[in-house]
Write a structure and sequence with these properties.
The complex is a heterodimer of chains A (97) and B (141). Chain A is of the alpha+beta class and 97 residues long. Chain A has one helix at 5-20; strands at residues 55-63, 69-79, 89-94. The termini of chain B are far apart. Classes of the chains: A alpha+beta (97), B alpha+beta (141).
Chain lengths: 97, 141
Amino acid sequence: MPTSRSGRSLAGLLGLVAVLLAAPSWTPAAEKAGPKREPPAPPRLAVGQEAPDFELPRLAFETDKDGNTVGKISDQKVRLSARRGKKPVCVFFSSYT
Amino acid sequence: MAYKDKVEFFLVYIREAHPVEKASDGRPAPRPAGPEIAQPKTEDERVIAATACLKGLKLSLPVLVDTMEGTAEKAYAGWPAGTAVIDPDGKIAFYSRGPNGAKPKEAEEVLKQLLAAAPKPAPAEPPKTKPAPPDPPGPAR
């Protein structure tokens, strides 16, 4: 269970994913003091604004000869604007650390 | 309420928030406890980090790999973490960023509202059937 500050933010994302995908719930670990960092810049986007478009490759997985899961960039690209007129989209931005 | 069939989820994997790095004196820079990953310098290194993330945290949602220039991260100011809900019209319906940028409860409320407001699909019409022919007249009395 991640306990670092970044782990908390990713933990929060995981909590949301678990709830929204009806997976078993996950509770983030208690806050832990970390090194001081600069305060985050104010948000640049506002509700009602056009969502900035992007097209990014999807991460795919394959198993190597030793049975290990290996990630690779797939040929499949995802464009946000191609989702218009369909379901709502929920995008998380995060890293592992 | 499960949303996986009603909402499309993505994780955009961005640059590391707390990478392992060295301070000016060459010693490891202080950082909070967590996975030890150096800031990826190539796409391959980012793929390795993203794969470790999915395996370590047992995530199942689709992952998109941001460019090394941080295209999506910069557009959404998504570092170190953020959440954006986009409605079917392509508009921002919810946005949060920062060290506690997930805001899961707020995001879920917005998703509920979007789904409640979505037009319901028209009910399927019953199959058209030919009317039964009238009964033949009975014998004359």
